[in-house]
Every structure is written in structure tokens, then in C-alpha cells.
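Input chain follows. Return C-alpha cells only.
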Amino acid sequence: MGARSRDKGARCEREVCRLFARAFGGTWSRVPLSGGWANRTAFATCGDVITTLPDFPFTVECKNAEGWHLEQLLTNPDTCLIARWWRQTCTEAAEAGRKPLLVFTRNFQPLFMMLEEGDLPGAAMACGGIVIRLAGRKLALLALDAFCSRHAS
């Protein structure tokens, strides 16, 4: 991965930290080396963003990449990038005994978040999002900014 790609991902993670701090309080930080940290199991961390809030139930994975479109969730739901990212997020969340939360974007697009619909019941509808079925799960897909603005502390 090149420096530009790493910087792009780091910008996304910092923005997620800023939005989550405003919405939930607490301290938020990027995981060292963006989740690729060799000591993540020793420190019980996974995903890309961590918090000091002891009861935050999610593993947060962030993606800032080109090559995806939301309609791919309908036309190629098993093979699109978003589905691959969702599977990665679920794997990391299971390792940590947490719930998966995927945040993703690309150039000139807002940040989107995806999580299991039952983890925040009604969140998608309350924030103008949608509920979709992917890999046998009902998932809420919504704009992260709308969600965080609605939940700002």
C-alpha cells in the first residue's frame, strides 16, 4: 500500500474519531498502523478505531477506497467490495467478541455506515437510511454524519 493510500485511510479514520467523539463522548483514536498492528491481540484491539468508552459494543472498520458503488449491493451482493469489507469487519468483530460496524467512503462521497439492523433498531429509518439483506443478515445502511448529528451529546 502506498503512502497516498495510507494517508487517505488515516484521514477517514480521524474523521470517524471526530464524529464519534461528538456523538458519544469519550476519547477516540486510530489503532496503530490502522488495524494491521502486530500487537493488536496482546492489547485486545481490533478494527481501525478504538475508544475509552467501556460499553461501546462495536468493532469499527473504516474503508476509504475507490471502485465501489452502492448499487453493487443489489447487483453483485456477494462479490462487491462493500460485501468483502463487511465480511472482514464481521471476522474482526467476532475475534473481539463485539458487534461489527463498517464505515466506508470514496472521493467526493459522504461517509456511510453499515451495521446489523438489530444492533441499533430503527437507526436506519430515523436517519434516512435503508435496510438491506446481505449474506443472510438484515443490515442498516446510513450516512454516518446524519447518524452522529442525531446522536450528538
